[in-house]
UniProtKB/TrEMBL annotation:
<feature type="binding site">
    <location>
        <position position="205"/>
    </location>
    <ligand>
        <name>ATP</name>
    </ligand>
</feature>
<feature type="binding site">
    <location>
        <position position="229"/>
    </location>
    <ligand>
        <name>5-amino-1-(5-phospho-beta-D-ribosyl)imidazole-4-carboxamide</name>
    </ligand>
</feature>
<feature type="domain" description="IMP biosynthesis enzyme PurP C-terminal">
    <location>
        <begin position="151"/>
        <end position="332"/>
    </location>
</feature>
<feature type="binding site">
    <location>
        <position position="72"/>
    </location>
    <ligand>
        <name>5-amino-1-(5-phospho-beta-D-ribosyl)imidazole-4-carboxamide</name>
    </ligand>
</feature>
<protein>
    <recommendedName>
        <fullName>5-formaminoimidazole-4-carboxamide-1-(beta)-D-ribofuranosyl 5'-monophosphate synthetase</fullName>
        <ecNumber>6.3.4.23</ecNumber>
    </recommendedName>
</protein>
<dbReference type="GO" id="GO:0005524">
    <property type="term" value="F:ATP binding"/>
</dbReference>
<feature type="binding site">
    <location>
        <position position="9"/>
    </location>
    <ligand>
        <name>5-amino-1-(5-phospho-beta-D-ribosyl)imidazole-4-carboxamide</name>
    </ligand>
</feature>
<dbReference type="InterPro" id="IPR010672">
    <property type="entry name" value="IMP_biosynth_PurP_N"/>
</dbReference>
<keyword id="KW-0547">Nucleotide-binding</keyword>
<dbReference type="InterPro" id="IPR013815">
    <property type="entry name" value="ATP_grasp_subdomain_1"/>
</dbReference>
<comment type="pathway">
    <text>Purine metabolism; IMP biosynthesis via de novo pathway; 5-formamido-1-(5-phospho-D-ribosyl)imidazole-4-carboxamide from 5-amino-1-(5-phospho-D-ribosyl)imidazole-4-carboxamide (formate route): step 1/1.</text>
</comment>
<keyword id="KW-0067">ATP-binding</keyword>
<dbReference type="GO" id="GO:0006189">
    <property type="term" value="P:'de novo' IMP biosynthetic process"/>
</dbReference>
<dbReference type="Pfam" id="PF06849">
    <property type="entry name" value="DUF1246"/>
</dbReference>
<dbReference type="Pfam" id="PF06973">
    <property type="entry name" value="DUF1297"/>
</dbReference>
<keyword id="KW-0479">Metal-binding</keyword>
<dbReference type="InterPro" id="IPR023656">
    <property type="entry name" value="IMP_biosynth_PurP"/>
</dbReference>
Length: 332
């Protein structure tokens, strides 16, 4: 069997982990980036494409394979093209439309009894600092902070004029929660019937994380484009609540989007001064912050006592499922 992924995001980690677990590996790569990926000896097969439609054709060309999605898939290919993938996908492909809709994403979190920021349906209702978000996994591009209802209206007009969204209903207006950002990475195993924490990261965003270097009298509007990731380890007393959230989320997705979460997911959160966890978003696939832990995080070692990246953990789950004749339980 061959494991295939799209070149971007966490593809190197995914294929490195697949090779460690003994799988053949294949990458679907834009011709302009093919030279970069050929630097790595753990990639067996290169399928170069010129356009997005050709990329989907290449993914479907592998009969005895499993395709591993990541955060760039829908952003690069678009939901319409992704829906045409016929190759078995590791994870729950039914979650993709939920992830591309901010309101549906928040609904899953709220139904899971996970604390979330206050949401404003109408700019006129804004009475505090808020962050306005665009749909889909855009890596923070286009997000903006507003301190008043007037700034919200001005920002919305700006993103509409730029064509980043087609109408205001695509946006979500959330309270800007003050605290430490912590992105809790988990993995749900249908084979082992357990949830594992695989790591924690903090997103390094430009230019909001560069503003601290400016003199206090220089005012620059923050932006939130993710450029990298920083590792984090949480105070141990925080972890039980994070696990409660994860287990609630798994249960809710099983009910609302069966068969529910399969494999990696991330609860993107802020930890407040009261050590409360407020979750403002989720990712239903592997997140780029897991690239920090190619040899495993402090948490994955507690489960496996061996180097276990999330990429390798995906391959291990596929291997266990194949050995038990349960591949259909981890693919859709």
């Amino acid at each position: 069997m061959m494991l295939v992924t799209l070149a971007s995001h966490s593809s190197l980690q995914i294929l490195h982990g697949a090779k460690r677990e003994g799988f053949k590996t294949s990458i679907v790569v834009n011709k302009e980036r093919e030279g970069f990926y050929k630097r790595f000896g753990f990639i067996d097969d290169f399928q170069a494409y010129k356009n997005e439609d050709e990329a989907i054709e290449l993914i479907n060309r592998n009969p005895d394979s499993v395709f591993i999605p990541h955060g760039s898939l829908i952003e690069y290919m678009g939901m319409d093209r992704v829906s045409k993938i016929k190759t078995p996908i590791f994870g729950n492909r039914k979650l993709f439309p939920w992830e591309s809709n901010q309101s549906k994403k928040m609904k899953l979190l709220e139904l899971s009894n996970i604390k979330t920021p206050i949401k404003f349906e109408n700019p006129e209702d804004v009475d505090r600092i808020v962050i306005v978000k665009l749909p889909g996994a855009k890596g923070g591009r286009g997000y903006f902070i507003a301190r008043s209802k007037q700034e919200v209206k001005e920002g919305i007009k700006r993103v509409l004029d730029q064509g980043l969204v087609k109408n205001i209903d695509e946006l979500i207006i959330q309270e800007y929660v003050i605290g430490i950002p912590m992105y809790f990475q988990f993995f749900y195993s249908p084979i082992l019937k357990r949830v594992e924490m695989t790591g924690i990261d903090i997103r390094y965003e430009t230019n909001v994380d560069g503003l601290r270097r400016l003199p206090l009298d220089v005012r620059v509007e923050p932006t939130f484009v993710v450029a990298g990731n920083i590792p984090a380890v949480a105070r141990e007393s925080i972890l039980p609540k994070a696990y409660d959230y994860a287990e609630n989320f798994i249960k809710t997705t099983k009910e609302m989007v069966p068969p529910g979460i399969i494999g990696p997911f991330c609860l993107e959160s802020v930890v407040t001064e009261n050590l409360d966890i407020i979750t403002f978003e989720f990712s239903g696939r592997i997140v780029a912050g897991t690239n920090l832990y190619v040899d495993g995080s402090p948490y994955s070692w507690l489960y496996w006592d061996e180097p276990m990246s999330v990429g390798r953990r995906i391959a291990r789950e596929i291997k266990l499922a194949t050995q038990d004749g349960k591949l259909d339980e981890v693919t859709t």
